[in-house]
Amino acid sequence: KHPNYPPCIRGWIPWFGAAFQFGKAPLDFLAQARAKYGPVFTIAAAGKRLTFVNLHEDFNTFFMSKDVDFQQAVQDPVQRTASISKESFFKNHPACHALIKGRLTRSNLHEVSSDLCAEFNEHLELLTDEGAGDLSDLVRHVMYPAVMSNLLGKCNSPASKAAVQEFTEQFQTYDEGFEYGSQLPELFLRKWAKAKQWLLSLMKSMVLKAKRNTSPDTNSKTLLQHFLTILTDSFSPNYALLMMWASLANAIPITFWTLGFIISQPSVYRTVMEEIASSFGEKDKTKSVLSESELQQLPYIQWCVLEAIRLRSPGTITRKVVRPIKIQNYIIPPGDMLMLSPFWAHRDPRYFPEPEKFMPERWKKANLEKNVFLEGFVAFGGGRYQCPGRWYALMEIQMFIGLILYKYELTLLDSLPKPSSRHLVGTQQPDGPCRVQYNHR
Ligand code: HEM
């Protein structure tokens, strides 16, 4: 009730606050709150104050101010979702971030891209020549093992169909419950807690294998092996779990959406196929290898990936206020969680005209060669702790889309689902199944 604080939505149950209404469909709740309370408002929910900043003018403060902190915002969720102690997290986090950022920087991607391409080829060729199935399942069954092999090592990728299936089930349970698991005691989330334990023991064995197979040559080490050179406490499997989750949880739904948007719009599909034909029309469809430079010849596919990311961005990203901070005419008190929604920011027509439309051409204006996205695009966060996997993500999705469409003709059997409004963490999941027919070309 402080006169300088932003308007606060409390609900009618003390302590619990607006948690119930907010939790049901948080993305819709945010849009309604914005319309009613303006560009800055606080939601009091389950003993926490979540203060949302919605104006582009305030994003720089969100990302750059010394009065807000990334590590303090994520430490408790990290402890709950990966059982990493507070001491270990504050000690190791800056080095872990710097390591991933350094290994996956754009200029280093050539070290991993040809192996990744070989993995995608191998797993795509395991599909039958023709068939039908859920598009999300198809993407997962190829991408999980390929990306895990690429980042964690071939010996750490699920090898058989049954192993991929088991991993997929456990990972999906963990991923779907991640948001609740980051807030609630495990006691309320039995199935999720079991999946987390299953993944943690898998990570323990992966760490042992990675240590056993490590090579003295820096360039042939996997990302996991690099990680193990800086982590000296007993939590290395726990960090490996988080790194694996971060590398799969956002990129895989975006791959689904990119494919869905392309094949549901005939003119986009045609342009993509023309680009593919002119770039590698004569190659062997079973063995195609894409290099970094060949990927640069598929700019339209890259625009499609970025446009899918824009439309299906993470619901929120967060910082903790550590000293009072002024935003608009309000003072935000220390202890508040400061929240920014990339999903809603990308629907601001001042930056993205006709924001709900999938328009890959809008990315023509971005200076991607200089690593600059479009103004107003915040899907990867910003500031010191911006997503360190962003260049890898763009490369892997573009490569996967280029390869699958080169090899297979895809036809949608259902209409493209809407994004689910149930989650705030991470990129948006489809609200229902979406079947496709595929035929090897
Ligand atoms: C389209 C795909 C992706 C999106 C939209 C995305 C988005 C994000 C966002 C918004 C953050 C938080 C940044 C902030 O608060 O400022 C983040 C963090 C992170 N991302 Fe990504 N990400 C993607 C793919 C990836 C991939 C493929 C990897 C790894 C290979 C990765 C690794 C990470 C890690 C490790 C963090 C935590 C950084 C830290 O704790 O310092 N991400 N990502």
UniProtKB/TrEMBL annotation:
Main localisation: endoplasmic reticulum
Q: Which cofactor does it need?
A: heme
What are the TM regions of this chain, as residue ranges? 239-263
The answer on whether this UniProt entry bears the keyword Iron reads: yes
* Entry-linked Gene3D superfamilies: Cytochrome P450 (1.10.630.10)
The protein's UniProt keywords, in alphabetical order, are: Endoplasmic reticulum, Heme, Iron, Lipid metabolism, Membrane, Metal-binding, Oxidoreductase, Signal, Steroid metabolism, Transmembrane, Transmembrane helix
Could you confirm whether the keyword Aminoacyl-tRNA synthetase appears in this record? no
Q: Where in this protein does the record put region Disordered?
A: 420-441
Q: According to its UniProt record, in which pathway does this protein act? A: Lipid metabolism; bile acid biosynthesis
Where is the protein localized? Endoplasmic reticulum membrane
Q: Which InterPro entries match?
A: CYP450_sterol_14alpha_dmase, Cyt_P450, Cyt_P450_CYP7A1-type, Cyt_P450_E_grp-IV, Cyt_P450_sf
Question: What Pfam families is this protein classified in?
Answer: p450 (PF00067)
Recorded family membership: Belongs to the cytochrome P450 family.
Q: What is this protein called?
A: 24-hydroxycholesterol 7-alpha-hydroxylase isoform X1
Q: Which organism is it from?
A: Huso huso (Beluga)
